[in-house]
Amino acid sequence: MPREEGRKNAKDKRAPGNSRIQGEGDYVSGERYQKDAEEFARSHDVNKLARDAEPKSEAERREMVEAELKGKERAKGKKPAPN
Among candidates 61, 59, 79, which has minimal Cα distance to 70? Predict the structure, then answer.
């Protein structure tokens, strides 16, 4: 799709009177997230934060793995199994 055509299609999805796409193509939130994420990475020791977030025990590790799997299932649209 030519670049100009893509822009035309993007304009068609805009709310009346709104110069930026909102909703699924929410540019304002995307730009704000990107700016905030870059600022966080510059101003924090992210490697230390990652090490601090590691599980402290085998039980905690299993709990984290289970939570991750539940989240992935939910993201796929599957209803999580009851506990």
Answer: 79
